[in-house]
Design brief:
The complex is a heterodimer of chains A (483) and B (253). In chain A, the strands form three sheets. In chain A, strands 4-6-7-9-8 form a five-stranded mixed beta sheet, covered by helices on one side. Chain A has a two-stranded antiparallel ribbon with strand order 1-2. In chain A, helix 1 packs parallel to helix 3. Chain A is α+β, with helices and mostly antiparallel strands. In chain A, strand 1 and strand 2 form a beta hairpin. Chain B is α/β, with parallel strands linked by helices. Helix content of chain B is 47%, strand content 20%. In chain B, the strands form two sheets. Chain B has a five-stranded parallel beta sheet, sandwiched between helices. Chain B has a five-stranded parallel beta sheet with strand order 7-6-8-9-10, sandwiched between helices. The radius of gyration of chain B is 18 Å and the shape is elongated. In chain B, 55% of the residues are buried. Classes of the chains: A alpha+beta (483), B alpha/beta (253). The interface between A and B is large, with 48 and 49 residues.
């Protein structure tokens, strides 16, 4: 077997062989069907031809003084019809079936017989036999030639005996004529059989080659798809890595910047405090704007300090130091820190919320950031009725869920999808780190944070906190205790 | 008298040494502390600070941590090694955890983060200079004593009490600024103790500890307690909680 790719595994070769068999079968069937249809048209054509022939060639008979149509005409019409109808019917209803082509073969050879008869045994009409056999080899199926040859031989034999003029045009043909015709038929058969067999072998080889090409092409496609997806993965992991590196660099920058900025800020704050105190004690008292503006300096320094704290909290990623942490008190703590004038803050955390082991400072930071976010998101027209409610409930599986709910008008879906991303903000000012810090702290506690927002109404941040499943930190020096 | 009241009267008598390599910060800090009534000395670095500490009586040293050459923690260590037990408060802009832990082990009073509130700092400094103690309260005396001893080994001044009532009596004496209370005690529970202490003096920080899960007590005590700890705890964790509690006044802005 010629193989395009010599190095193939046995499973692959098996698959190729199977595919080749399928393809060969398909080609064969298609060939048989086409040839069936071809013969159907041929048979119909022969019938029409026979009728015309009979009308043209066969002279009118004279029955006494009456001219009638020669009997050949109705024979042509009726017998021809009988010979043609069944194979044509089969060719259109059961194309490709072996029975169809055997019946067609028989019918075609009988047509030879009929045409020979209608032409009165004219020798040239005998050529139709050889032509038909050649046409039958279009099937590439040597078995078709068997019934065909049998029909020819039997037909000649019978007519030689019963009605020699019909076959040979004379009443005394000679016994050997059958043999002579038979011999020529067999001669042609021999070559046709060889032709059919070698043609089939070619078809098989062609099917095999096609199957191999198909298989190779599938393999190539698969390789190419795998390569594509590997490239895509590589690109996305590269992007992720670049992002991570950028964030790490940001963290380092933030840390060093934070340290550098805090000293000058401390000096400014101290200086401001001193000046304010001296001025407040001065007589006459200075213009109220003076003290007012010094207050402004103090507040703005506070703002700077908060921005730096946010950056450093984000960069530092401190592991939580866990201790029992009643959340209601932490929320109260957070409320006291958030700058707020109009919005109502409600602590609806139940008294009996399970006490989990959490880092109190980090949880306070989480609530401060969430509540501040909600307060700052309150649009001016909603401020009068603005409410932020913090509530909570135990989870049946253990741990608890705490929710921070506001009526600030909701967050659009495209913003909500990115809202925990570091440095993502829709506010005119702000570092964009507040919620990233929240997400990071919640996650370091082993928890999750979810967002549910309805446009036109408000937003709810839900924090899931699990029961601490880690063993308590192993102390290096355990204080002795008897209980 | 509360800690805050003490601040006003005692400040006038106290000598503070401020150490920082950043000149503007040093200058403004000294000015504010003088305005608050302290007598203030200054040094631009740890070496100069050590010299001053050797030659003068000091009530308190306030130092930056990150300085070129000797750090604030090195200064603290050097002071303790030479037998000087002046209370030390450290300032930090941004310091690595390990350095903070080191400072706690050497017995720093507290660590305040820059930028801080000056008035709050004054409260913390006044408290520190008056050398208060940490009171450890546990109904099992060995436990209380062991905890107190562990803290003392780190240079923290401590006392112990065996019951809630004893604790409150001790607090009334006025030299306690942090109370470490076991939540589960017979008689007065830890929760009741912190409530009473809060009524006496809101400036006293309470830390709640418990070996058992006592959610009801935790909840009740929550608003009066700065932080909780689960037993068994590492001494440095307790020292860290104490230092954090002591820096609260300076960090309230």
């Amino acid at each position: 077997m010629t193989s395009i790719a010599p190095s193939q595994s046995p499973e692959l070769e098996e698959a190729v062989a199977q595919r080749a068999a399928v393809l060969f079968g398909e080609h064969q069937t298609s060939l048989h069907r086409r040839t069936d249809r071809l013969f159907a048209y041929l048979l119909l054509g022969e019938w029409a031809f026979a009728i015309v022939l009979a009308l043209v060639l066969s002279p009118h008979a004279w029955d006494g003084k009456v001219r009638t149509i020669h009997v050949h005409v109705p024979i042509a019409v009726l017998l021809g019809g009988v010979l043609t109808m069944l194979p044509v019917f089969l060719a259109f209803t059961r194309p490709g079936m072996p029975s169809t082509r055997y019946i067609i073969a028989v019918s075609q050879m009988l047509w030879s017989g009929l045409l020979i008869h209608l032409t009165g045994g004219r020798i040239e009409t005998h050529f139709h036999v050889f032509g038909s056999l050649a046409f039958l080899s279009f099937y590439r199926d040597w078995r078709v030639l068997v019934p065909a040859t049998l029909v020819v031989v039997v037909d000649h034999l019978v007519r030689q005996v019963v009605w020699p003029e019909s076959a040979y045009g004379t009443t005394t043909p000679g016994a050997w004529r059958v043999l002579e015709h038979g011999a020529w038929v067999l001669f042609e058969d021999a070559f046709l059989v060889v032709a059919c067999l070698s043609s089939r072998a070619e078809m098989r080889a062609s099917a095999e080659r096609q199957a191999q090409v198909e298989t190779l092409s599938h393999l190539e496609e698969a390789k190419s798809a795998a390569l594509d997806s590997a490239l895509r993965e590589l690109r996305s992991s590269q992007t992720a890595q670049i992002r991570a590196e950028r964030l790490a660099a940001l963290g380092k920058l933030a840390a060093s910047m934070g340290h550098e900025l805090r000293n000058p800020l401390a000096a400014v704050r101290n200086a401001n405090a001193y000046v304010l105190k001296r001025l407040q004690a001065a007589r006459p008292a200075p213009d109220s704007k003076v003290t007012q503006f010094l207050d402004v300096i103090d507040k703005e320094v506070g703002v700077c300090a908060k921005i730096i704290s946010d950056l450093l909290d984000f960069a530092r990623e401190k592991e939580p130091t866990r201790a029992p942490c009643p959340l209601r008190a932490v929320v109260d703590d957070a409320f006291s820190v958030v700058p707020n004038d109009a919005v109502v803050l409600e602590n609806a955390v139940p008294e009996d919320l399970p006490i989990l082991d959490l880092d109190r400072d980090q949880m306070r930071q989480v609530f401060v950031n969430l509540v501040q976010n909600a307060v700052e998101a309150m649009p001016a027209d909603r401020r009068a009725s603005g409410r932020v409610v913090v509530s909570g409930r135990a989870r049946p599986a253990g741990g608890c869920i705490v929710e921070v709910r506001d009526n600030a008008g909701g967050i659009p879906a495209d913003v909500a999808a990115r809202i925990f991303e570091p440095l993502f903000t829709t506010k005119a000012k702000g570092t964009g780190l507040g919620l990233a810090v929240v997400a990071s702290m919640v996650e370091r506690h082993g928890g999750n944070i979810y967002l549910d927002s309805r446009l036109g109404e408000g937003t709810c941040f839900a924090i899931e906190l699990p029961v601490d499943t880690l063993p308590p930190q192993q102390p290096q020096q355990v204080l002795e205790q008897t209980t | 008298m509360t800690i805050a009241d003490d601040a006003a009267t005692q400040a006038r008598k106290m000598t503070i040494l401020v150490v920082d390599d950043e000149a503007p910060l040093l200058l403004t800090l000294v000015a504010n502390l003088e305005l608050a009534g302290f007598e203030v000395l200054d040094a631009p670095g740890a070496r100069q600070a050590l010299e001053i500490a050797r030659s003068r009586h000091l009530d308190l040293i306030l130092s930056d941590i990150r300085m070129p050459g000797m750090s604030g923690v090195d200064l603290l260590r050097a002071l303790r090694e030479s037998g000087c037990d002046v209370p030390v408060v450290l300032m930090t802009a941004f310091t690595v955890e390990s350095v903070l832990t080191e400072a706690l082990r050497e017995g720093v009073f507290t660590i305040v983060a820059k930028p801080f509130d000056v008035d709050g700092l004054v409260v913390s400094l006044t408290t520190a200079a008056s050398r208060p103690i940490v009171l450890v309260v546990d109904d099992e005396p060995p436990v209380a004593q062991a905890a107190a001893a562990a803290l003392a080994a780190m240079g923290i001044r401590t006392g112990s009490a065996g019951s809630g009532a004893e604790a409150i009596e001790r607090v009334r004496r006025g030299d306690v600024d942090v109370v470490v209370v076991d939540m589960v005690m017979p008689g007065l529970t830890g929760a009741e103790v912190v409530e009473q202490i809060a009524r006496l003096d809101r400036g006293i920080a309470c830390i709640g500890v418990s070996g058992h899960d006592a959610p009801a007590l935790f909840r009740r005590a929550a608003e009066n307690v700065v932080s909780f700890l689960r037993k068994p705890y590492r001494p440095t964790d307790l020292a860290s909680s104490i230092a954090r509690a002591r820096s609260r006044p300076a960090e309230r802005s």
